[in-house]
């Protein structure tokens, strides 16, 4: 979801900065937060605290809860779908292809964003980082999300911008399409079946796989 379907960096970075400011710590820029995204909220918060040099006295579970309390109400404030995302979801739907979100983000935040940005009607299911007992890079996260969305894992593809997405896809196995427009570094595409430069290419890539 983050860095593939939506550009959520501004709200994640702002929330991270507010958390650190609240504790009197050094605030990162959005560019510094970008590579911290993709492994769920807990690791994002740990990376933020490490960046700011927070000591062991700052409880990481409490800071994660605090971050979520800051982030959830503002999660769709500056966050936007990537250009072409709606057209792509509509094209897939018109081709009879289901779209599900398999994200390490908490499912409540992912669902709220889809509703607030007005694309929940085009999504057949959401498997969040807390929906199951596993999450990406565990391939079971993809299997369970596809199943919950009424899809057939034998026909599924995974689109993502992070190593976790491609590793999980390889584990299922399903084809992994690396989203080059996202937040992941180029080397994260190592396990990808194919690299997409633009979200609008997704329907034709799926057709050719
Ligand atoms: O790390 C997150 O919180 C979300 O990232 P994802 O949507 O790419 O899984």
TrEMBL record:
Protein name as it appears in the record: phosphoglycolate phosphatase
Molecular functions per Gene Ontology:
phosphoglycolate phosphatase activity
Q: What is the lineage of its organism?
A: Bacteria, Pseudomonadati, Pseudomonadota, Alphaproteobacteria, Acetobacterales
Signal peptide start and end residues: none
GO BP terms: namely: DNA repair
What EC class does the entry list?
Answer: hydrolase
Q: To which pathway does this protein belong?
A: Organic acid metabolism; glycolate biosynthesis; glycolate from 2-phosphoglycolate: step 1/1
| Family membership | Belongs to the HAD-like hydrolase superfamily. CbbY/CbbZ/Gph/YieH family.
| Gene3D superfamilies from the UniProt entry | HAD superfamily/HAD-like (3.40.50.1000), Putative phosphatase, domain 2 (1.10.150.240)
> What is the source species?
Kozakia baliensis
Which Pfam families did the record assign? Hydrolase
Q: Which InterPro entries match?
A: HAD-like_hydrolase_sf, HAD-like_sf, HAD_sf, PGP-like_dom2
Q: What PANTHER family does the record point to?
A: PHOSPHOGLYCOLATE PHOSPHATASE (PTHR43434:SF1)
Q: What is its EC number?
A: 3.1.3.18
Domain of life (superkingdom): Bacteria
Coiled-coil residues are none
Q: Give the UniProt entry's GO cellular component terms.
A: cytosol
Q: For this protein, what reaction is catalysed? A: 2-phosphoglycolate + H2O = glycolate + phosphate
């Amino acid at each position: 979801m983050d860095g593939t379907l939506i550009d959520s960096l501004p709200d994640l970075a702002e929330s991270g900065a507010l958390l650190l400011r609240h504790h009197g710590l050094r605030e990162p820029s959005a560019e510094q937060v970008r590579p911290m995204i993709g492994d769920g909220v807990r690791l994002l918060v740990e990376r933020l605290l490490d960046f700011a040099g927070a000591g062991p006295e700052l409880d990481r579970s409490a800071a994660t809860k605090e971050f979520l309390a800051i982030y959830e109400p503002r999660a769709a404030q500056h966050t936007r779908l990537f250009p072409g995302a709606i057209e792509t979801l509509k094209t897939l739907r018109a081709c009879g292809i289901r779209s599900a979100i398999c994200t390490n983000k908490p499912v409540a935040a992912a669902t709220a964003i889809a509703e607030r940005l007005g694309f929940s009607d085009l999504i057949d299911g959401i498997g969040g980082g807390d929906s199951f007992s596993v999450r990406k890079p565990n391939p079971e996260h993809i299997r369970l999300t596809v199943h919950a969305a009424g899809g057939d894992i034998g026909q599924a593809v995974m689109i993502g911008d992070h190593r976790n997405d491609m590793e999980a896809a390889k584990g299922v196995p399903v084809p992994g399409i690396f989203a080059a427009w996202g937040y992941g570094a180029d080397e994260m595409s190592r396990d990808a079946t194919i690299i997409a430069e633009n979200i609008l290419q997704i329907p034709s890539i799926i057709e050719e796989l």
